[in-house]
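Subject: Sanity check before I submit

Could someone independently write out the C-alpha cells for this chain? I want to compare against mine line by line before I put it in a report. The sequence has 143 residues.
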Amino acid sequence: MKTLEIASEQAFQLIDVTDAVNEAVAVPEGVVHVWCPHTSCGLLVGELEDGFHEDLEGVLEQLAPVAGPWAHDDLARRHQNLEPDERRNGWSHIRAALATLPFVVVPVADGRMALGRWQRLFLVELDGPRPRRTLQVQSLPTA
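---
Independent answer below. Compare away.
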C-alpha cells in the first residue's frame, strides 16, 4: 500500500490525482483500490473540464448550501466527535455524501488505471483549504 498526501488550496476544489495514483500503481494487471479517510472530501471519477467543475459546485450549493442551518454545526447540542478547534462544516459532510465516494476500485492495464478517454480521478475538496492526511492506494494483481 502506498500513501499520497494531498493539500487543497480552495474551499471547493477538484484535485486531479490521476497521475499520482498511476505512479503508485504497483501491478501490471489487476485493480487499484484508492481510499480517502475523510468525511468532508471524497473521490470522484469525472471529466477534467472547467464547466463540469463549475456545474458540480453550483448543484452542490443548491442541494447543501454553506449557509445552512446544519445540526452538525450546532455545538450547543452536538456532543460527538468534537475537536478543540471544531470547524462548522455541516454542508461539507452532506456534499461528500451526495457527490463523492470514500473509495474507488479501478481496473489496471499496462500498469495504469484503465480509465475511459475523458475520465480522471479527483479528490473533491469540500472544506478547504487544508492539508489532507492521505489517500491510500493499494494495487492488487489479477488472479
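---
OP: Matches mine. For the report I'm noting this point. The chain has three helices and eight strands.
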